[in-house]
Design goal:
Elements: E1 15-18, E2 21-24, E3 31-34, E4 37-40, E5 59-62, E6 65-69, E7 75-77, E8 82-84
Antiparallel strand pairs: 1-2, 3-4, 5-6, 7-8
């Protein structure tokens, strides 16, 4: 609800004011509109939007690079598999 006598403005960078209604300017690739409001677009989050901090222990990537499994000694990473070789848990 807009109050009478108050001057409202929009910055023009993602927010628009049409008459007495504010709206969001969405590019549709990262954020889009759904029937109930704002949502992340389908396939809208890519390596570019991920901060490197999302790659916890054992992962690499983020900050524009794809996430990947950081294989160490005895670990082999394939396209769709991760294998552990040797005896797990032995000193």
């Amino acid at each position: 609800m807009l109050l009478s006598g108050v001057n409202y403005t929009a910055d023009g960078e993602g927010i628009e004011l049409t008459g007495n209604e504010f709206g969001l300017e969405l590019d549709g690739t990262t954020l889009s509109k759904s029937s109930i409001g704002l949502k992340v677009a389908d396939a809208g989050i890519t390596g570019t939007q991920l901060n490197a901090s999302v790659a916890g222990d054992g992962l690499t990537g983020g900050a524009g690079s794809p996430l990947a499994v950081g294989a160490g000694a005895g670990i082999t990473v394939g396209v769709d598999t991760v294998s552990v070789t040797g005896i797990v848990g032995s000193p």
